[in-house]
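Please review this one.

:::
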Amino acid sequence: MSSPHPIGQPFIELLSVESTNNYAMGLARAGMAQHGTVVFSHEQTKGKGQRSKAWVSQKDMNIAMSLLVDPKKLNVSELFLLSMMVAVGVRQFFLSYIEEGIKIKWPNDIYWRDRKAAGILIENVWQGSEWKFAVVGIGININQTDFGMLNPKAVSLKGITGKHFDPVLLAKELCKILDEKYQLLTSDPSQIIQQYKIHLYKLNEPVKLKKGNRVFEATFTDVTPNGQMVVRHAIEERFDVGEVEWLINGG
């Protein structure tokens, strides 16, 4: 994979696919992709979310896209910085339409107040210890307003603003923002870290967490450069991505 192309070029638009991440992964493994390639689909039949959960999105309503990133300009130690960069970029995208209330929930969900507006799933391909490429899946609730049982926990851009949007145009707009953030990541990653941390959801506030059968409350104090969540109660603890689960609005 070469990396002279900006994010969003080429922009592959599909009517329906099982998973944009799987489709992008297939392109890369077949040698048919390059840095910046974006796969957008109007429908996902088997979308993927964090912690092996499904990402459910109504047809033609939302942004379901995956971005191929050539990580040659990044070190393996900077794996989580890519996640930070995408979260910062998606948050900035929302700021074009929403003035306040947009936060990044560790590790990389986007929340408006206490409701999820977008999710990010990054899958990496390795060859031995070499980081060959990353597939960045992004799901953003745009026009969907009925989330069934998840109604108290999910929200969309339309649900917040009352306006209807064109998901394809918004996806291309997002690509431009992500390209700017990627350039910043490769030139001055400290700025990405700073932008990520100052907009963290519930930072320096008590949070309720679950690890296995253990449910506990602690104060969320930091996220380390390698992505660990730092909390403090009687002692300080650190948790890797996927090791603990947030308990918000009952789940």
